[in-house]
Amino acid sequence: QVQLVESGGGLVQAGDSLNLSCAASGRTLGINTMAWFRQAPGKERHFVAGINRNTADTYYLDSVKGRFTISRDNAKRSVYLKMTSLEPEDTAIYYCAATDRPYGGRSAETYAYWGQGTQVTVSS
Q1: Can you tell me the distance from the alpha carbon of 59 to that of 47, in angstroms, rounded to the nearest whole number?
Q2: pLDDT score recorded for residue 99
Q3: Most distant CA pair in the chain: distance in Å?
Q4: Taking a C-beta distance cutoff of 8 angstroms, is the pair 115, 22 a contact?
Q5: What is the pLDDT of residues 84-97, one digit of tens each?
């Protein structure tokens, strides 16, 4: 089993920045892709950004390209999401996810492991 714990959420104003962290523990050797998803109230969970732990290849939701950056530190078994120029539309619970697939893709069904989520609220 793999356990994921997110941190770093909070309440910020539009235009501010916020950094999220996700620490993995347990049987992490088989994990190849880690990603961030988000879920706004009353909406489905959507992919935000993903990274391959070995190649560091990244991929993003179009609306966050240029504003969000995903990165990883394999020694710390962690993945990060740096968010800049935040907008009220970014308000959501942000979830860390992991899968053993080299390219996890953008579908939540691909990811076997999930954290509990961290709330990000952006006020206008």
Answers
A1: 10
A2: 96
A3: 42
A4: yes
A5: 999 999 999 999 99
